[in-house]
Amino acid sequence: MEIYKGIPVSPGVVIGRVFVLDEVRQRVPRRSVTPDKVVAEVARFDRALEESTAELDAMRVQVEKELGQEAAKIFAFHQGMLRDPSLTTPIRGRIEREQVKAEYAVAEEFRALSDRFAKMGDSSFSTKVDDVWDLERRILRRLVGEQRSRLGGLAQPAVVVAHELTPSEAASFPHGKVVGFATETGGRTSHTGIVAHALGIPAVAGVARLADHAADGDEIILDGDRGVVILNPDAERVENYRRYIERMRIFGLSLEDLRDSPSVTQDGVKIALHANIEFPREARQVVENGADGVGLYRTEFLWLTSDHEPTEEEQYQQYAEAVRLLEGRPLTIRTFDLGADKGHGSMAHDVEPEANPFLGLRSIRYCLSNLPMFKRQLRAILRASALGPVRVMFPLITSTTELRHAKMVLRDAMEDLAEEGQPFDRDISVGMMVEAPSAALMAPTFAREVSFFSIGTNDLVQYVLAVDRTNEQVANLYTAAHPAVLVLLKEIVRAGRRAGIDVSVCGEMAGEAEYVMLLIGIGLRSLSVSPAAIPRVKRIVRSVEIEQCERLARRVGSFDSERQVLAFLREQVRTIIPEAFDGRAVEEP
Ligand code: PEP
Ligand code: MG
């Protein structure tokens, strides 16, 4: 039995058999052309480029039909890359300069690009390496003819294991034949992961050395909930996971009844349950799962899946769709949180690579240094506020100067719209994410300047503990159970309560079974979690009393280590609501 840890990119667990894919890269030998053939060779490359672009058009339409808009946008992004002269000019240059065949020039330039991407510390680049290979294969196919599909030998349903997997391959998996996949490359924001989500199959990325060790037909457990892959598991492990899969199935059925029940504790206290979404279409699931609204709309995903900065109108259309689908429930729109793990969209070329992207020009800082772009977004948000309840929220605020600047740009946008006679909500609620230690420590000051706080524990944890949230090597140190994090959470909640403003948690911890009681116990009355976690959290809320949660929080406050905190919380939740305890109901591998 071998256990590997990776990054969970699409949830669910399967037990199956391995199908290993060969290396995607093929060696293309260097072949020269005579000087009189160079022009024809460049033309051959241009033709292949044109055909590839047309092929991507067809792919985009088909994928949109089968897997939805988000997955389809990946192929629009690919088209954007093919149009980018910084990629195509060097290829033509190499054919002319070195007098070589187009396929060799393509292979060499794509290899150089992929090396550059892989070396950048910024994971938004390194997770796009699979996109580079995808395009290389596409163009080479036009130049040298059909290549053998790597999935050709797949006869039975299997778990695909590969060094890398391109988004095109994932989107074209033979129907029902691939029940999950694990790759050595990729990460949470990789396009291949987005496709896995759309397909509804579990996936784990960033699993070092897996493809070297796995062989066709090996038994495999793929745990997309926790990012764990187990090769040739022992009988006990298989049995544990079988029981877990069955428990989750039954639990899932029992949750369906919860949809129309209110989110109140046993003693009648309302805990507002909102959802986090990346695309407007998810608002449908928010309603179906019985949430009170959207607590975090990560608008940057529109940009990350486009080949250009979304126009004001494009943004407005998206926000309007979310408002419409929510049927009167509130929509909290967060302004672009670009940079660090979420790239800079198609502006990436204009942004200097950074040594420490998480401490760099990201999020609100990026917006405040691109005011016209920021204003376009604020106008779109304001216009959508005329259609239903909309709140606006600024991410990664670290100082009052920053917050006041952002609010000033918002006021500017309001004045412009008023002058143009465009309708919008003049009393729109303005809030901020509390996700930097400086904001947490100054919460009483900030609470006087905003109408709500949303605590982004994903970032808060990384900044408080000095642990990169995307770095697998220190993943064992990254935990919201650390007493330092819990002390700050309490202080933020207290500051918000004193000022009489709404405080919510929208980081992943809010949706994790072990933390729900604790968060209620320290005073939170609003949580925002992934749409899929809504029923589970509601179930917990409906099973507990406030006093019980407060007792638990007091006890946790007396511990001095994250291990103690976590062990205690797990034991408590397991005792009080065993069926709500998801993934971790199976012993840690
Ligand atoms: C957070 O940081 O907790 C958060 C919710 O924002 P994101 O995960 O998008 O950074
Ligand atoms: Mg954040």
Draw up the topology in text.
Elements: E1 2-5, E2 7-10, E3 13-20, H1 38-67, H2 69-83, H3 85-98, H4 102-119, H5 123-126, H6 129-144, E4 158-162, H7 167-171, E5 178-183, H8 191-199, E6 203-205, H9 210-213, E7 219-223, E8 228-231, H10 235-256, E9 272-277, H11 283-288, E10 293-298, H12 300-304, H13 312-326, E11 331-334, H14 363-368, H15 371-384, E12 390-394, H16 400-420, E13 429-434, H17 437-441, H18 443-447, E14 452-455, H19 457-465, H20 483-499, E15 502-505, H21 513-521, E16 526-529, H22 534-543, H23 546-557, H24 562-576
Helix pairs in contact: 1-2, 1-6, 3-4, 4-6, 13-15, 15-16, 21-23, 21-24
The structure holds phosphoenolpyruvate and magnesium ion (MG).
Instruction: Supply the number of helical segments.
Output: 24
Molecular shape:
globular
Q: Report the biggest beta sheet as strand number plus sense, adding barrel if it closes.
A: 8 strands, mixed
Tell how many strands the DSSP assignment holds: 16
Strand order of the largest sheet: 1-8-7-3-4-5-6-2
> Which molecules are bound besides the chains?
phosphoenolpyruvate, magnesium ion
Strand content: 5-15%
Mean pLDDT: 89
Question: N-to-C terminal Cα separation, in Å?
Answer: 11 Å
Unreliable spans are 583-589
- Helix vs. strand class: alpha/beta
Rg, Cα atoms, Å: 25 Å
Helicity level, as a percent range?
A: 40-55%
